[in-house]
């Protein structure tokens, strides 16, 4: 995600100042890159270094929520905006007034997933998620949204970020023992790749199962490549809807060229929505910087520019404070859509619903805040045909009979009233059996069943109807 976005960030800077509309601008953004990986401590120390020694006016891009959490505090301490286009809200907004997410409101995605679940009448769902900061808000939001549509979440499957293969295996086995077969997955790309591979080995990417991925996993292909898709056949995923424009098409082409130059040997086809958010973030910052109308006196000389990273000596920045104000007010038409910040995050709109089929990601429909799920953005329409796991076009019913179990049916054995029920050559016959089988056949799924005569070894009745009912109750026919 870092590499994909960095290419976007550079392109954004190029494009912004090459645009005739910005020819008269007196401010210029200058980028200082720090590659911290996913480590929270590295990100923190890079943040302190940037604030103290480079005196940056804004920090873009703590990638994970754990990184964002600490940097957000640092931003609060120094009055420097910390902007993330990929981290999910680590805390309630408002607590850290200098942390801005230039990504969509996560809660809206929870509603979209709930709508998808309701559309298919699944009554029970199991969220499967990485137990880290990125999910502390999302999972309760998801459970709340599901409750609104009368869907139960009786079990939440948490996975530790550093789970080993053995841990994942035992988690997957426990999922398999549940009746519920609808899962909503949200975890990092690395974990997800292993998880789906093991789930496939366990036969859980097969007929009857439903896997829904939240955004970020929907783009896993763009980040980790096609091996991910091989084990994710039939998965459906949500993704922020981005309108296909001429500008976007041109940007994607330039991005592909530049990305391949900078990351030889790694194939990537599109900048992903995170990349577009990164692009728009830089554009917004450049607009905000000009609007903030800096004057020289905003930039005080740095007192402690001696390479130290001690914590207490971070000065608050007046210039950055102004920048925050104007950034929150910026609106423009960006690559990812209308850029507009409310509640410290990008205002979210429509989602695209994707189905992974072969090496393709097929768009099967949309979710819009006003009108919910539809096959088309502009008119109400059915969803496109979804190929569920196991190359199946029938909508899975959302639960599975436990393995190797059959329904045992007790049948009375008695003389008389043969029209209702009797045994003939070991097979039950009669009106009651006809009705029962008509009902079973009307079900949209198979029920393995077995008729057991209520008789002793000689074929004589073992008792009255009351005895039979009691035996059924004791599971002892
Ligand atoms: C990302 O970029 C860094 C620095 O340019 C490079 O060392 C690294 O190999 C790249 N990683 C990927 C996965 O492209
Ligand atoms: C942010 O800073 C303000 C004032 O400097 C302080 O009152 C507030 O508690 C801080 N918030 C956090 C989360 O540190
Ligand atoms: C995000 O969306 C949810 C539901 O759509 C809404 O309740 C919430 O206020 C929004 N904003 C934040 C900051 O979560
Ligand atoms: C950096 O500057 C501070 C304050 O001026 C001083 O206390 C500290 O010893 C200096 N550190 C180094 C490594 O020179
Ligand atoms: C979202 O979908 C609605 C129709 O359902 C459409 O009117 C609106 O333009 C879409 N918004 C964006 C930003 O694409
Ligand atoms: C189901 O039955 C098959 C064959 O009879 C057996 O190999 C398998 O282990 C059983 N599965 C479970 C979960 O009992
Ligand atoms: C409904 C149900 O069977 N839930 C179980 C799913 O698996 C977990 C872990 O084994 C159990 O704790 C749940 O009770």
């Amino acid at each position: 995600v870092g590499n994909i976005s960095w290419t976007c960030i550079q392109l954004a800077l190029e494009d912004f100042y090459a645009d005739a509309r910005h020819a008269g601008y007196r401010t210029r953004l200058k980028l200082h890159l720090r590659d911290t990986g996913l480590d929270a401590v590295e990100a923190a120390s890079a943040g302190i270094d940037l604030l103290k020694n480079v005196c940056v006016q804004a920090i873009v891009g703590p990638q994970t929520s754990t990184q964002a959490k600490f940097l957000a505090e640092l931003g609060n301490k120094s009055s420097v905006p910390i902007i993330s286009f990929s981290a999910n809200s680590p805390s309630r907004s408002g607590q850290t007034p200098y942390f801005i997410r230039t990504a969509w409101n996560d809660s809206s995605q929870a509603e979209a997933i709930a709508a998808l679940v309701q559309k298919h009448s699944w009554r029970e769902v199991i969220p499967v998620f990485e137990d880290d900061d990125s999910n502390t808000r999302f999972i309760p939001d998801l459970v709340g949204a599901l409750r609104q549509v009368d869907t139960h979440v009786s079990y939440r499957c948490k996975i530790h970020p550093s789970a080993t293969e053995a841990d994942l295996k035992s988690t997957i086995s426990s999922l398999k023992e549940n009746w519920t077969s609808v899962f909503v997955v949200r975890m990092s790309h690395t974990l997800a790749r292993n998880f789906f591979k093991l789930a496939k080995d366990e036969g859980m990417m097969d007929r009857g199962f439903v896997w829904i991925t939240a955004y970020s996993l929907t783009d896993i292909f763009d980040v980790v490549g096609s091996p991910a898709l091989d084990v994710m056949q039939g998965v459906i995923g949500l993704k922020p809807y981005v309108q296909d424009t001429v500008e976007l098409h041109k940007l994607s082409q330039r991005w592909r060229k530049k990305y391949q130059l900078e990351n030889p040997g790694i194939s990537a086809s599109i900048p992903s929505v995170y990349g577009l958010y990164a692009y728009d973030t830089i554009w917004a910052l450049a607009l905000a910087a000009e609007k903030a109308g800096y004057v020289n006196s905003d930039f005080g000389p740095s007192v402690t520019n001696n390479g130290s990273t001690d914590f207490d000596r971070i000065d608050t920045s007046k210039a950055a404070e102004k920048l925050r104000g104007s950034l929150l007010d910026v609106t423009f038409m960006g690559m990812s859509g209308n850029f507009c910040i409310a509640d410290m995050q990008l205002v979210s709109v429509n989602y695209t619903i994707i189905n992974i089929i072969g090496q393709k990601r097929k768009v099967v429909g949309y979710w819009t805040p006003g009108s919910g799920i539809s096959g088309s953005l502009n008119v109400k329409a059915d969803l496109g045909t979804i190929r569920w796991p196991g190359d199946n076009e029938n909508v899975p019913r959302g639960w599975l009979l436990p393995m190797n179990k059959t329904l045992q049916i007790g049948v009375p054995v008695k003389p008389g009233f043969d029209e209702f029920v009797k045994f003939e050559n070991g097979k039950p016959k009669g009106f009651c059996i006809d009705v029962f089988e008509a009902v079973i056949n009307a079900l949209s799924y198979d029920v393995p069943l077995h008729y057991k005569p209520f008789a002793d070894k000689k074929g004589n009745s073992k008792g009255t109807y009351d005895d039979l009912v009691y035996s059924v109750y004791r599971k002892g026919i």
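The pocket of 2-acetamido-2-deoxy-beta-D-glucopyranose (ligand 5) is lined by residues 241, 243, 337, 349-350, 368, 371, 377 (CB under 6 Å). The chain has a mean pLDDT of 89.
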